[in-house]
Amino acid sequence: MANSKISELSELTTVANDDVLAIVDDSASETKKISFANLSAGISVGNATQLQFTALNSTGSTLTKGSAVYVSGHTSETQVANADNSSASSMPAFGIVSDDIANGATGTIIIGGEVSGINTSSFTVGDELYVGTAGALTATKPTGTALIQKIAKVTKAAASGELLVTGAGRTNDLPNLPDGNIWIGDSSGVPQDKTLTAGTNVTITEDSTTVTIAATGGGGGASDLDDLTDVTITGTPGAGEVLINNATTGQFVNSTLTAGTNVTITEADGSITIDSTGGGAADLDDLTDVTITGTPGNGEILISQTDGTFVNTTLTAGPSGFVRITNASGQVTIGAGDGTEVEYLVRSTAVSSAGDVEGNIVKFGTTTGMTAGDVYVWNGTNWVQVDGDADTTTKGLMGVALGASSADDGLLTHGVAYLSHDPGAAGDILYVDTVTAGYLTATQPSAAGDFVRVAGYCLADNKVFFSPSQDFIEIGA
Percent of the chain beyond pLDDT 70? Predict the structure, then answer.
């Protein structure tokens, strides 16, 4: 390039290594030269509206045009990756990608000036843009723990819009703070400028590093107990005195604790010790209203007499046999009484499910697989389901099965039962059924060769009063 005055220069399309920029100081008669060959190859002055640098994409994917990027490293070239305001390690952004940069390729990063051809249609002219996540730009100021970096301003809002890059390379947001003010975070995690003001009887002093808040006193607060309006201190309190409320006046007054019978109270500075001196009963027999006779046996209890005294005694079951009492060490068990051969089952609720019964129960035989609520007879070897078609399944001891096992669950021989079936209407006489084995029926058998035996009465639906007759009749031809 030939020597030229600045006023004569036109736009340079190419730059040669021997080109220089000469700055002449007329007053000192000196000329300073800047050689383009000595400028860093990585820095370029693009057009008059941009400041750029060249960077390498080694992220593994394409860096898209308009993305905010940070300097992620350096090999032969400065490396960049998408900036992200959620992590300090990927901030601050140092510029905006001018055009898509494929992985492994170099491209241009705009660190100042205009960027055009970017979709800014979701913004408005004048919007100030912040670094978002994954290289995105946002017009919403980050909140919470996100880092804040204002990086650009929208100069054209369109599908092919323009940005003015203004804040590359810095992450800050808070302005200077007036003297005496503090930053207070609000519910969104955004700091707010607040003035710290001293209230009554409080002073606030500041220096370059510290804020000191102190009480000045003089606010009418009590300096000791006797200054409190609801406390009256009489004389000089002695060691171990306490404040106790006077229910009549509502005042708290100082008082000395007084020991009652079999109690000692030792008072000292800052402590009170209360001990028992004994004198009470050592065991039950020492109590004036208790008389222990002999050595109490397992499960004996104390029971009151008409004269108001207590004596030891053993609970005894009555002669009816319907109550069983078992005395053991530290306990008494009261249960329903069972005979050796026959049990009597009493329920606290009405029978409602097949096999529910109340009355006399027998448990013998080795029959299993029975159906709860079905009716059986003992044939001398096993319990079999009743059936009015034969005398062997009609005569003999009859019972309602409580469960599957004759030995474990047993059968009701007399009482109230809930059958597995509905035998008839309330008040009907019930017979051994000739149709379904194990069933009772309100229909009296009438065919020749059938056997008639009354088994009880229907109370309602499946609930019956079970009281089998000892007699049965065979119907003749």
Answer: 80
- Measured CA to CA, the distance from residue 364 to residue 382 in angstroms comes to 10
Geometric angle at alpha carbon 323, from 322 and 328, rounded to 5°: 150
Q: Which residues in 140-174 are b (16+ Cβ under 10 Å) and which e?
A: eebeeebbbbbbbbbbebeeebbbbbebbeebeee
Q: What is the pLDDT of residues 137-183, one digit of tens each?
A: 999 988 887 888 888 899 899 999 898 888 776 766 565 566 767 87
Q: What is the pTM of this model?
A: 0.38
Q: What are phi and psi of 226, to 5 degrees?
A: -70, -15
Token pair belonging to 302: 């104390």
User: Would you say 286 and 310 are in contact if contact means Cβ atoms under 8 Å apart?
Assistant: no
User: Across residues 458-467, what is the average pLDDT?
Assistant: 97
**How far is residue 37 CA from its own chain's centroid?**
70
CA count, 13 A, side-chain hemisphere, 53 = 20
DSSP string, 367-424: --SPPTT-EEEE-SSSEEE--TTSGGGTSS-EEEESSS-TTTT-EEEEEEEE-SS--S
**Cβ atoms 402, 363 nearer than 8 A:** no
- Other beta carbons less than 10 A from residue 80's beta carbon: 29
What is the reported pLDDT for 367? Answer: 97
The CB density around residue 404, as the number of other CB atoms within 10 Å, is 14
With 0-12 / 13-18 / 19 or more C-beta atoms within 10 angstroms meaning exposed / middle / buried, residue 183 is exposed
Q: How far apart are the first and last CA of the chain?
A: 145
CA distances from 340 to 137, 344, 362, 403 (A): 92, 11, 10, 20
Which two three-digit tokens encode residue 470? 């000892």
Written as one letter, the residue type at 172 is N
Q: Which residue has the tokens 């200054």?
A: 227
The answer to whether 336 and 322 are in contact (CB under 8 A) is yes
User: What's the number of CA atoms in the CB half-sphere (13 Å) around residue 345?
Assistant: 23
Count of CA atoms in the C-beta half-sphere (13 A) of 456 = 28
410 touches 342 (CB < 8 A):
no
Closest CA to 130 of 81, 166, 175: 166
Query: In this structure, are residues 51 and 96 in contact, taking their beta carbons and an 8 Å threshold?
Result: no
- Give the angle 327-330-334 at the CA atoms, nearest 5°: 40
